[in-house]
Predict the structure.
Amino acid sequence: MAGLCRGAHEDHVRVETLRDRKKAATADALYRAAVRLAIARGLDAVTVEAIADEAEVSRRTFSNYFANKEDALLHGDRARMRRLLEELRARPSSEAPWRALRRSAAALFTDADEPDPHWVVQTRLIRRHPTVLAQQMAGHAAFEQDLAEELRLRTGDPMRARLLAAAFLAGLRVGVDVWIERNGADPMGAQID
């Protein structure tokens, strides 16, 4: 995220450097290239070399950012999880945990009317490939732990924090799934809420 970021546990404002922004732009270009190619050709026909060429970077540069094409394809998913955690950390510490979670999710889905159509296609694509889906689920499990730790700081109760994190992420997943199944009949933010 370019610009200024402020977390609930920070006493100062952090400004990203030009280098940080360039690295983020390169990772995003590789991610978008992976999505475009996977949609156009099918994931099995896409190579790391093709992704690097599409993003106009070297194979070595690709390897500096991602372990494989599946990792590149999941970059957007990880970015959304980081942003959700940042949104939660920015919420007032006095706010009730569930309310803070809901408002963090709302902030994530109200920046634009609806998600990028490529994101929907990407989500469907991931579900058709068990290895990518397994990698995504592993990332979600790690994120659940991070979310639970943030909630533990708010509640002081590790078990309650884990339950809140698990229930929230299950609700978020179901909301997104239903939205996709209904082809976006309702606004995504409303469906998730």
About this structure: Strands lie at 4-5, 14-15. DSSP finds ten helices and two strands in the chain. The two ends are 24 Å apart (CA to CA).
